[in-house]
Amino acid sequence: MESWGLHEWLEYQETLNPNSIDLDLSRIEKIFKKLDILPPKDKKFLIAGTNGKGTTVAFIEDILIRRDLKVGSYTSPHLISYNERIAINKEMVPDSVLIKAFKTIESVRDNEPLTYFEFATLAAFLVLTQAKCDAWVVEVGLGGRLDATNILEPTMSIITNIALDHQEWLGDTLEDIAKEKAGIIKPLIPVIYGDDLMEEMIRRIAIAQESDLYVASIDFSLVNQDEYSTWNGLYNSIDNINAPKTWGFAEYKNLSTALTAIELEDKNLLPSEAELNLILKNFYLPGRFEKIVKNLTWILDVAHNPDAAENLLNRLEILPEKGSKYMIISMMKDKDISGFIDIFSGIISKWVVCKMDTERSLTSVELSEKLVTFGASDVTVLDSPKKAFNYVNEIASKDDTAIVTGSFQLVGPAKSWLKSV
Question: CA of 258: how far to CAs of 216, 289, 294, 421, in Å?
């Protein structure tokens, strides 16, 4: 164990609990109390929601970094490297720092069966503590109420939106899911909700916790005009925002939510009009409508539920009309496959399905059967992501677009493959 590298440590962590997902805070709370984890007094953002968490995290990071703050973030899952999950000023921490944290946790674990995600969360909080970060920006993993990240006492709770996903764990209805995600609302801590669906449920929980609630379209908004947009916050506004032309409706909501969180935390941290436009000009988040041109145009997007698919479709429709659109898709067994693929039925010329390198993935045959049921006539079945990428690369022309979507575990390999060709 003393000489283990990162790979050995991660393999070991997967063996500690027989359940890959085990929503229960009792284990992590025991170990948390044994560790010297000391979050900053303020600027602690905890971000839940069905979609848009990663984008909202990235906006908050960029804004705070512009103010010369040392910003630590914890996100999941990763696309290529585990190190992506823990970053300081958007730079991944090295293996040595992670391994040091793992050893510290293991020294006090006392056979407590931590899950892989619980181990990661404790490591993240240790790393951010030791780096003496001025701000913590933490993305909830699954749900909220019983998620490992909910051991953090934030100074700002954020819920991006509520949509159907992970029903096996969070419940079958929007009401159930809203209740779970609103479980991050802490007594007297302000909460920002970046949507309006299920607002009543979230308001009920905020009232019970005596927490001030601020809701998109009611308390703050980002108005998208022809050339420029205007953010109207609680007490401040920013005009002449030059948002990327390829944004969908969700990106505007995420930016508005992030700005309002910053405003509520400390209005002096808000960017000027010029600073915000510079942030947006350089904004980059891997796997979120990521455009790579190699032989043809590749669009990589981690959308994996119908709500995210709607936003992806919205963005695809903004692109210039040229060539054919190929969709390379794979999804996990617990996803709403039919609801997802139906959204794209009108714009995709050819579907290419494959199985990902995980037991949770649908087989290629299962996915192709779903597509055929929905009337797709041009479906190619391949048994691995790499074969799917190679196939499309060979048959497509330079005016065509390949859309890789459905899971982080398909988009990650696509990024790696594109670097190699």
Answer: 11, 19, 33, 36
pLDDT of residue 164: 87
Give the orientation angle of helix 249-265 with respect to helix 53-66, to 10 degrees: 50
φ, ψ of residue 412 in degrees (nearest 5): -60, -55
Structure tokens at 309: 């698919």
Query: How far is Cα of residue 332 from the mean position of the Cα atoms in its chain?
Result: 16
Checking DSSP bridges between strand 91-92 and strand 191-193, what pairing results, if any?
Answer: unpaired
Residue 172's pLDDT band (cuts 50, 70, 90): confident
Number of H helices, E strands in the chain: 15, 17
Q: How far apart are CA 68 and CA 309, in angstroms?
A: 36
Average pLDDT over residues 300-325: 95
Mean pLDDT of the chain: 96
Q: How far is the C-alpha of 170 from the C-alpha of 310, rounded, in Å?
A: 22
Grade residue 321 by pLDDT with cuts at 50, 70 and 90: confident
Alpha-carbon span 203 to 207, nearest angstrom: 6
Partnered with residue 351 across adjacent β-strands are 327, 379
- Distance (Å, whole) CA 152 – CA 125: 9
**Cα angle vertex 34, ends 133, 142, to 5°?**
65
68-101: b or e for each residue (b if 16 or more CB lie within 10 Å)? ebebbbbbbbbbeebbbbbbbeeebbeeebbbeb
Question: 41 falls in which pLDDT band (50, 70, 90)?
Answer: very high
Segment holding 136, helix H or strand E = strand 135-139
Does residue 73 carry a pLDDT above 90? yes
Query: Is residue 277 within 8 Å of 242, Cβ to Cβ?
Result: yes
| Phi, then psi, of 137 in degrees rounded to 5 | -125, 110
286 φ/ψ angles, rounded to the nearest 5 degrees: -55, 140
Three-state secondary structure call for residue 379: strand
